Amino acid sequence: MIGFNTLFHVTTAALGLALPIELAGKLVVAAYFVVFALAAIQLLDAVAAPRWRALLLLPLATGYAFAFGFVNFALGLAIQLLVLARVLRDDKPLPTALLALLGVYSHVLPSAIVYALLGAAVAAQRRPRAALPLLPSIAYGALVLVVHGTARQNAGYVAVEGDSTRVADKVARLFHFATGLRGDRVDELVVMAALAVALIAFLAPRARPAAPALSMLATAAALYLALPHVFFATAFVFERLAAVVILCAIVAAPAPRAALEPLLRSVAYVVALASSLLFLQSMLAARAELRDLDAVLDAAPSGRRVVGLVFQPHLPSFRLRAVLHAPAYYVARRRGEVAFMFDTVSLPVRPRRDRPEMQLPHLFELNPEQYDPSAPYARHFDLALVKSPNETLDPRVLMFRERPLERRVLARAGAYWLIETR
Fold this sequence. Notes:
It is built from 18 helices and 7 strands.
């Protein structure tokens, strides 16, 4: 099985043959930013918009999907935006087709979103043949859905399939869902400023906006308002579209009146600079706030079987659950094995779950209080990497009913503990 929705995993694993796996992953994430920037420039070229507007798109690169850790989605979106630009410019079909296949392999959902935008754009241009290079990638995506769609890899989402949020709430929280990295939500203000530049251009145009770009904006907005939170056993669906709506608005904005353009260009430079500085500050904050986790991992023995129990998944500087899957770093630094929720059917290599000791509680990473020290999996994963609810509470009292304080602690730093479970 070659997997699907796994470009980040496969690329990182390939680089990991020659590099430390953490460095390999960081290089792939860095490559995502390069692809996103290239896609932004080429898409603006394709609709005859000025390149300086790419500066306004920069804060969207670290939006909700990226902040939530949906790296395959982010990679797939950036690649398919390149495909969109190539189709609009009528570039050579074979490279476009190959790039589109790579984008679908990265993630099916952003590919479907961008292809909906592309369909609206080529319809507005009245040249549907321009989309022919996408047929192989559409066929591949359809095959994935047919073969694996009934597997429902995220079975816990089936109960809320189709549940949505009120349209009024979606409109009110557009900037909330277009961002997600920072706990102080200053990044929302930066995205607001970027969209304000586009709105001023719409209100004071020098020329009419391009019909294909307007069609893409209308399609993105319709999808954002219509799609539910959970669709086809995939969660956070409409939330990932918020950044796409704003991206399309910035791309579709007409040329502003000549007197306004210098001012709007200056605002774009400020937006890009602010976005870059805020991202840098966030990464420096992450380094400081993860020092305790680094200390515990440095002290951990190698080659063990680890279960992660994260009772407090948040970091002070970040809005979303930044350390929910942090125990997986044990394998990256110490090898061994980790109990991990996201070993889904999409991954080309994953643990077998047909043995009793490998049958973990469903969504256990989200519910560490369900840990059962008498279960077969607790005997198999005999080392626990725990983040306590706070730095003063000993998590052993939450994990074990009998003589909890007799369990051996191998390492502790701040709220992070490494505990023998036997």
